[in-house]
Task: inverse folding
């Protein structure tokens, strides 16, 4: 491989975790003081600022919070926390096979929560006294329900034809974004297959493995998919670590990539949308854990450059950077450095790309994150996030009222425009659209 693959800009610019560590510390303090309800409120604030008011009732005793394709119900009454989430309606055919897998999830995936069958409906539930609701435990209960529910409902709908109990509240990507992502997958896929063909001639399966796994990471990075496409990419990445000869692993990964390239754009679009998430599936990054994760590849890239093996350096640096995004919510300062380097290194000679990527890696390993571009980016994203947070509750209320007073086509058009404005960082336009929505609501109310 003499040239690096194409860089495709991501749908979501900021990859930073929404969690607030100080809110978690406050939650623990409140729990230790016996303020159990307030401690849980602070835990919700830790997970995502604004969710408590956006999805809760006035007195903070009932919440209905979406996480991907499921809806988590939390009720506080009579000295107990009751948490449940509708899962799926059982299909007529294949229900026995599906129930077997649900039983396996009960044993091997769910910890404290459990699947419960209610007629033809399955749901997950967990109940505990207020006095046994330590924030650490409640966090993992919510995480467990969210991750199992959001992953396996898509899989069981696809595999068994099950039907959702809850229609996810999503904002589809604008059509131009869908077109761009589809073309990006096609371009990246063709470049990857060409590289695999080149490497196979010389039986360089280690390089094949690296570029193929990197491609899966990169698709996840720029497409930010949901639903079954996300599940499929997760499985493809896991399969790359199978205990098999590297040649066989590469062949299996190549087959998945070829299958993905054959998916029609309309089918791909079904899993391209924005949705609220209660508990991230990724780790929250820090400079320390990024440095620890990068250490081996940093050493490897240094040795490769010293021996003028720029291909190895570029391939390994691309791999570790895209892998970081796959497993972590990367903080804004580190994201700014890596994203800029990945963009500059796209479609470059391996020597030039190696230089660009190594410089970025060197900055991170030295803890030198004070980059002018990064500072501008971080400040802009923080302002944008603050503006969104301030408007979040009014937007949610407006959308609910809009649903009662306007047609679904009007809602979808406004939501799409708001999504476009949010993605571009145009908060002025986003604010204007919110005001437009509110004015239309008031106009309908007055008529």
Result:
């Amino acid at each position: 491989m003499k040239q690096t693959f194409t860089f495709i800009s991501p749908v979501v610019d900021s990859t930073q975790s929404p969690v607030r560590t100080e809110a978690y510390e406050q939650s623990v303090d409140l729990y230790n003081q016996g303020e159990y309800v307030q401690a849980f409120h602070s835990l919700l604030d830790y997970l995502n600022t604004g969710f408590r008011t956006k999805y809760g009732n006035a007195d903070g005793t009932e919440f209905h919070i979406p996480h991907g394709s499921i809806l988590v119900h939390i009720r506080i009454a009579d000295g107990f926390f009751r948490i449940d989430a509708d899962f799926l309606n059982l299909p007529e055919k294949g229900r026995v096979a599906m129930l077997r897998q649900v039983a396996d999830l009960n044993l091997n995936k769910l910890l404290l929560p459990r699947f419960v069958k209610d007629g033809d409906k399955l749901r997950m539930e967990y109940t505990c006294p207020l006095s046994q609701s330590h924030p650490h435990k409640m966090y993992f209960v919510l995480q467990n329900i969210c991750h199992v529910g959001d992953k396996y409902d898509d899989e069981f709908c696809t595999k068994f034809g099950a039907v959702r109990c809850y229609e996810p509240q999503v904002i589809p990507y604008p059509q131009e974004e869908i077109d761009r992502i589809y073309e990006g997958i096609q371009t990246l896929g063709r470049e990857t297959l060409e590289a695999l063909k080149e490497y196979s001639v010389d039986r360089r399966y280690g390089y094949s493995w690296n570029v193929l796994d990197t491609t899966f990471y990169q698709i996840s990075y720029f497409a930010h998919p949901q639903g079954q496409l996300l599940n499929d990419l997760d499985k493809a990445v896991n399969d790359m670590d199978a205990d098999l000869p590297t040649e066989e692993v590469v062949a299996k990964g190549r087959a998945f990539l070829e299958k993905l390239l054959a998916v029609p754009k309309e089918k791909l679009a079904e899993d391209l949308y924005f949705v609220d998430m209660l508990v991230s599936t990724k780790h929250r990054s820090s400079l320390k854990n990024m440095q620890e994760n990068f250490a081996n590849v940093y050493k490897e890239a240094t040795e490769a450059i010293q021996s003028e093996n720029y291909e190895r350096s570029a391939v390994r640096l691309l791999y570790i950077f895209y892998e970081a995004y796959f497993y972590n919510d990367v903080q804004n300062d580190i994201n700014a450095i890596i994203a800029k380097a990945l963009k500059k290194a796209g479609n470059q000679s391996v020597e030039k790309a190696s230089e660009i990527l190594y410089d970025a890696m060197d900055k991170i390993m030295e803890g030198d994150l004070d980059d002018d571009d990064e500072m501008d980016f971080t400040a802009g994203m923080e302002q944008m996030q603050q503006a969104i947070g301030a408007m979040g509750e009014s937007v949610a209320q407006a959308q609910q009222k809009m649903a009662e007073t306007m047609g679904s086509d009007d809602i979808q058009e406004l939501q799409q425009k708001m999504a476009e404005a949010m993605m571009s960082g145009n908060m002025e336009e986003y604010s204007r659209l919110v005001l437009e929505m509110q004015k239309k609501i008031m106009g309908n109310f007055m008529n």
Summary: The first strand starts at residue 62 and ends at 67. The chain has a mean pLDDT of 87.
